[in-house]
Amino acid sequence: MQFKNLILLAAASSVNAATLRFSCSQLVVERLDPLVNPGENPSPHLHQIVGGNAFNVSMDPAVHDLPTTATCTSCTPTEDLSNYWTAVLFYKARNGTLHRVNTFGNELGFTGAKGGQTVYYLSSGKVTAFKPGFRMTVGDPKIRTAEELNRRYKYMDFTCLASSMTRGGQTTYFPTKPCAAGIMVSIRFPTCWDGVNTDSPDHQSHVAYPNGNACPSTHPVTIPQVFYETYWDTRPFNNQADWPTDGSQPFVWSFGDKTGYGIHGDYVFGWKGDALQRAMDANCNSDLFANAINCPTLKTQTLDQANQCLKTKTVTENLDGWLTQLPGGMPIA
């Protein structure tokens, strides 16, 4: 059904459940990854980042406190100085050259956003908000098969948008036909925490998926589900006469994945004080079709104000126009 995901979210909007939904405009697009490649400038592949402007090359929580370091956020809740990021989509032309695909504002309420993504915090009961210094990743850029992706991760997919209202037909691989209204990429993080560690060596072992409706004994603390929707403007590249002659789809992730199975996301918590816990405890339920966060306990700003929060690039390289290779020379496989 076209509204399947929206109906599921609406069903969560019941007693003791929260559906916090808001826009985060583009903060910067550059080759940094302070979780997987801390201190490396540049990191191996390109990312698109949203959230607070304290994002930098290392982000060591012992010395870099996001809520007190950031001076603005590209998200509409002004108490959210977190950072959220994903890889970047590229179009590969028939002649082998590549062009970066831009993000655009979610047309269900956030058309005024300058790119970025829609962020959700979901709960179906009492949850414990993340602690200062918390960070996690989901997905693995090395995955190239559906079997491995489905075995290790859940709820990460692509939607080929026929219109802004399309919510069905998700795949775990890149769409194989032109998408009239672009491609939506959905990334959902696990919802169970070990209750002790704010990070782990692989940035994933301290969190886990529930077994049915219950968290496993190893990760007994229920946390909000962080969920990204990123809209990629593939519309300028919909002419199939320019697609590969073998009939394959033309898109590739910035880390060289042409299958889509390497889909992944990164998250660093940076909410001020108890703001996120207040929102979860208040069971805030945002409008799923409009720019209405419906959460009186939070302070917010307009989309125009969020658009003004930008970060100066620290990596100098050409990301625009037609390129002969992916940034960083990442091989395509």
Keywords:
333 residues, mainly beta, five-stranded antiparallel beta sheet, 5 helices, 17 strands, 10% helix
What is the first-to-last residue Cα distance? 33 Å
**How would you classify the helix and strand content by structural class?**
mainly beta
Q: Write down the overall mean pLDDT.
A: 94
**In what order do the strands lie side by side in the largest sheet?**
1-7-14-10-9
Uncertain parts: 6-14
Work out the number of β strands: 17
* Outline: globular
Order of helices and strands: HEEEHEEEEEHEEEEEEEEHHE
What is the overall number of helices? 5
Biggest beta-sheet profile: 5 strands, antiparallel
Radius of gyration: 19 Å
Which percent range describes the beta-strand content? 15-25%
* Amount of helix: under 10%
Description:
The protein is mainly β and 333 residues long. The chain contains five helices and 17 strands. The protein has helices at 4-12, 66-69, 146-152, 275-281, 303-307, and strands at residues 18-24, 26-30, 47-51, 83-87, 89-92, 98-100, 117-123, 135-139, 156-160, 183-188, 192-193, 207-208, 221-222, 225-232, 251-253, 264-268, 322-323. Strand 5 and strand 6 form a beta hairpin. The model is unreliable at 6-14 (pLDDT under 50).
What's this model, at a glance?
Helices cover 10% and strands 23% of the residues.
What layout of secondary structure does this protein have?
Layout: H1 4-12, E1 18-24, E2 26-30, E3 47-51, H2 66-69, E4 83-87, E5 89-92, E6 98-100, E7 117-123, E8 135-139, H3 146-152, E9 156-160, E10 183-188, E11 192-193, E12 207-208, E13 221-222, E14 225-232, E15 251-253, E16 264-268, H4 275-281, H5 303-307, E17 322-323
Antiparallel strand pairs: 1-7, 2-3, 3-4, 4-16, 5-6, 5-15, 6-17, 7-14, 8-16, 9-10, 10-14, 11-12, 11-13
